[in-house]
Amino acid sequence: AADGKLMSRTFAPYSVYKGKAAFSASPRLPTFNKMDSGCLKRQRFALSATEVGSFISLGPRDSCEFFHDPAMLSSNAGQVRKSLSIKPHADGSGYFISLSVVNNILKTNDRFTVPVTTAEFAVMRTAFSFALPHIMGWDRLTNQLPKNKDEN
Amino acid sequence: AADGKLMSRTFAPYSVYKGKAAFSASPRLPTFNKMDSGCLKRQRFALSATEVGSFISLGPRDSCEFFHDPAMLSSNAGQVRKSLSIKPHADGSGYFISLSVVNNILKTNDRFTVPVTTAEFAVMRTAFSFALPHIMGWDRLTNQLPKNKDEN
Amino acid sequence: AADGKLMSRTFAPYSVYKGKAAFSASPRLPTFNKMDSGCLKRQRFALSATEVGSFISLGPRDSCEFFHDPAMLSSNAGQVRKSLSIKPHADGSGYFISLSVVNNILKTNDRFTVPVTTAEFAVMRTAFSFALPHIMGWDRLTNQLPKNKDEN
Amino acid sequence: AADGKLMSRTFAPYSVYKGKAAFSASPRLPTFNKMDSGCLKRQRFALSATEVGSFISLGPRDSCEFFHDPAMLSSNAGQVRKSLSIKPHADGSGYFISLSVVNNILKTNDRFTVPVTTAEFAVMRTAFSFALPHIMGWDRLTNQLPKNKDEN
What is the value of ipTM here, to two decimals? Predict the structure, then answer.
């Protein structure tokens, strides 16, 4: 009840009243808990701003593929090849996201493929679009005071 | 008048001047007041991030349905079944949002249906898209200082 | 020069390098100055959240119209009628925004029409979409700390 | 490892689990380093809010062009003419961005053309859409407290 009061003070739910029924929507903050992913193998792939741009502008029938060499410009250049590919499902209901890592130093060759639905892709597109200006450092624009005309 | 001055100092209205007439737009902060919803029955349905993704990516002819069991993983699992469905109007002018709750413990069976217009759905899509990164906890990205290159 | 240094420290421009030329984009904060609008007549029309939703979801061939009675629920109800209409240009290159105010108390009848281009409408759609969660009070979601799982 | 712990405490990655594989996405803050652009020539072009609106609403086959006179309203008016044009690639795979500066005072005539891909354009569209409300000063809406109903 105390929590309910707090919510009603701080958020304004969006409500739609029609006849005898009404629909009301309000946001909830996340809760976090620890999770053991249990993955035996794990690989990372850090998208650049432009690769994020490619990701968020994918149409339902589009595909894209990114290639990274984590040892680029070092003496191990070319020894590890990573590629991330995003390919649409044949019926347009989502995408396959595949990460391939060929490591000639460790003599390993990993390939992971995860199907994501349209809804899951929409979550990522929205979250990536939100994150992109922050990844680029443009969000610090908001923490500055505007200059007066005289100073310009 | 005092309020008007304050507004003109703090916001920059977006103005379009054409011939003898001009159009100017500026935002206003919300005001809140207490409201008695008067609903006799009330049910909640908390959307997950992926369900929000499904919601905001709905095309004008698309539908979706979500099923929740609030007692999942407890001894009452399966006793309460909730489903939220979103179905388009036949003429594409909006959606029907229906919430069905079958509670075998309380022997109740509630079903609520609210028609929402395209404009009301656009409000929710915009607000849900705004809320999604916050629901996911990604907004805390903005409250952090960037690392120096040396620390990377 | 000092200003240039400051900018390069605080913002990361987005740069595209191709062959001998490069393209770089970075944001600038606004400057404000006083302006005498010089309008002889002026009328206001405050959009509700749902009307903003209707505005931002307008397709290039769509139109919409909103009706307000500023004296609604008072003894002067019906004496002042305001309507805001948005109609597309015949060639799809923008919209006509018209505000009509019929005031039976002051015996006045004003009508303003301003053509807005697609680019000007895009500015308003983007700004209105940004403002909508704030108009609804959902932005206060960002100023709260997440609850721990235990408290939920 | 310490960094990994910190990340898991501060961000909630978005994870998709399917069968034996899982996909997880989380944002990373930017790092900055100094860069010598090495450009021999450099020209600036400051977009207005409406020009940003034109930029972000460009369809894949659309083009636009903006003309600026940096000495407008001074005695040097017309001496320097700048134009920025954005034209689509013939195959719809991106745009050519060209900046032309004719300076009759310095007797110079510069023209720069940079091809940008769809992904690079998506980055700019997302970043410009994010920046637009800030360029307009509407972001200060978020730093204000809402008024009580009584004060309205």
Answer: 0.81
Q: Which domain holds residue B115?
A: 44-136
- B33 within some domain: no
Please list, residue by residue across A43-73, b when 16 or more beta carbons sit within 10 angstroms of its beta carbon and e when fewer do: eebebebbbbbbbbbbeeeeebebebebeee
The total number of structural domains that make up chain A: 1
D5 occurs within a structural domain: no
Query: Is B151 inside any structural domain?
Result: no
SS3 state at C70: coil
Of the partner residues D46, D53, D133, the one whose CB lies closest to the CB of residue C28: D46
Minimum Cα–Cα distance from D146: chain A residue: A10
Q: Which of D84, D54, D80 is nearest to D66 (CA)?
A: D84
- pLDDT, averaged in runs of 10, over chain B (152 residues): 34 70 71 60 87 93 94 90 95 91 93 91 93 83 48 32
Q: Which of A36-45, C23-32, C138-147 has the lowest mean pLDDT?
A: C138-147
Integer Cα distance of D113 and D116 in angstroms: 10
Q: Which residues of chain D make contact with B145, given a CB cutoff of 8 A?
A: 29
Indicate whether D32 belongs to any domain. no
What are the residues of chain A with a beta carbon less than 8 Å away from any beta carbon of chain D? 30, 32, 37, 39, 46, 49-54, 56-57, 64, 97, 112-116, 120, 123-124, 127-129, 131-139, 141-142, 146
CATH code, domain with D124 = 2.30.31.10
